[in-house]
Specification:
The complex is a heterodimer of chains A (167) and B (173). Helix content of chain A is 50%, strand content 11%. By secondary structure, chain A is mostly helical. Chain A has one domain. Chain A has a two-stranded antiparallel ribbon with strand order 1-2. In chain A, strands 3-4 form a two-stranded antiparallel ribbon. In chain A, helix 2 packs antiparallel against helix 6. Chain A is elongated and about 65 Å long. Chain B has one domain. The termini of chain B are far apart. In chain B, strands 1-3-2 form a three-stranded antiparallel beta sheet, covered by helices on one side. Chain B is of the alpha+beta class. Helices cover 42% and strands 11% of the residues of chain B. Classes of the chains: A mainly alpha (167), B alpha+beta (173). At the A-B interface, helix 1, helix 2, strand 4, helix 5 and helix 6 of A face helix 1, helix 3, helix 6 and strand 4 of B. Strand 4 of chain A pairs parallel with strand 4 of chain B, so a sheet runs across the interface.
């Protein structure tokens, strides 16, 4: 790396830090809402996050669970089918994912208690409990994949550049 | 399955910083143009099949009438800068990702997993015309200082955006 390139790299890092510190709460909220939307859509399409950050097909459902979903198909969300593995039964858990911004931090959260589930009964688990359980069962989904990261960077970059170039 | 990439010739006056910034702008242009339903030359892509339009995937993705090669967005959002040297940048897909290269090749050639290219079904998206490239390059003036200002703004904005994304706090997991 030439001295000139090293100097430019230092300048880019300094400018990036200044930009980061000037991000408004409104912009943070926008980032988090885009990320939340990406997670909901990708998961409903049947994809989770693989070990290398790659979008990976969610593990298939067990035969027993498919039978249960068929038996209670009237309670299934219209965003799924009995055999479809997309972390969606009634849809409550994915619907609860929302973006927000607190004290300069960009937050994406799963929150809230649950109404009646697939079988019509109401348990004590929260949406976050359900999310934790499905991830422990080998279906990681809550985060961003490498392509989603690129997409978010592209969107945020455009917002930043518009602001920078407006002067 | 062939490695899906494209070499984009650029003037030799651009150094490494400008080449990386220009590559970002070229990739952004390719993605945005494709998402707006236009192929490399600006024409429309061949339509989706009726069965695909009636699928649950189509509904979940919230797709409309525009053919934009986007379901989850994984394919377009995987385009990256592969290499750059004086007078040239190369963008495309990670060579080791056979699945993505296969998907991109299917669209580019119209083969869609059949192994046979079919021009009438092809949706060429990975590339940029000389005219469109000129619009990007014209933003990098011949004055080195102004050209580097444009490039550093572009790269700093991307770096800041990357840090913001990496700092997202996922709560409840």
């Amino acid at each position: 790396m030439s001295d000139n390139t090293a100097k430019l790299d230092r300048m880019i890092k300094l400018l990036a830090n200044a930009i980061k510190n000037s991000v408004t709460t409104e912009e943070s909220a926008r980032i988090s809402n885009i990320a939340a939307r990406q997670i909901r859509k990708r998961t409903r399409l049947g994809f989770g996050i693989g070990s290398s950050g790659k979008q990976t097909k969610l593990n298939p459902l067990s035969g027993k669970y498919i039978e249960q979903r068929e038996a209670y198909s009237e309670n299934l969300s219209d965003q799924t089918k009995p055999r479809r593995s997309n972390l969606t039964a009634t849809g409550q858990m994915l619907d609860s994912i929302q973006g927000g911004a607190k004290a300069g931090n960009v937050i994406v959260e799963i929150s809230g208690s649950r109404k009646a589930g697939l079988t019509g009964s109401r348990g004590t688990a929260s949406n976050a409990d359900v999310a934790r359980y499905v991830q422990e069962q080998g279906r990681p989904f809550f985060g961003v994949t490498t392509p989603e990261r690129r997409s978010l960077i592209r969107e945020i970059k455009q917002v930043i550049l518009r602001r920078l170039r407006r002067g | 399955m062939a490695w899906q990439k494209v070499k984009v010739p650029i003037p030799r006056r651009f150094g490494p910083t400008e080449r990386q910034a220009i590559a970002q702008e070229v990739i952004d242009f390719i993605v945005e143009r494709t998402k707006s339903g236009k192929n490399i030359k600006g024409g429309a892509f061949p339509g989706y099949s009726a069965s695909y339009k009636g699928s649950l995937d189509f509904k979940i993705a919230g797709k409309g009438g525009t053919v934009d090669l986007t379901l989850s967005g994984e394919m377009l959002d995987s385009i990256q800068l592969l290499a750059h040297k004086s007078g040239e940048i190369e963008v495309g897909f990670d060579r080791s990702d056979k699945e993505l290269n296969g998907k991109a090749e299917g669209n580019q050639t119209g083969s869609y997993g059949t192994g046979k290219a079919k021009k009438s079904k092809a949706r060429p998206f990975l590339g940029i015309t000389g005219k469109d490239l000129k619009v990007i390059l014209d933003k990098y003036p011949s004055s080195r200082e102004d050209s580097l200002t444009r490039a550093t703004d572009e790269l700093a904005a991307a770096l800041a955006a990357g840090d913001l994304v990496d700092g997202i706090d996922f709560e409840g997991d």
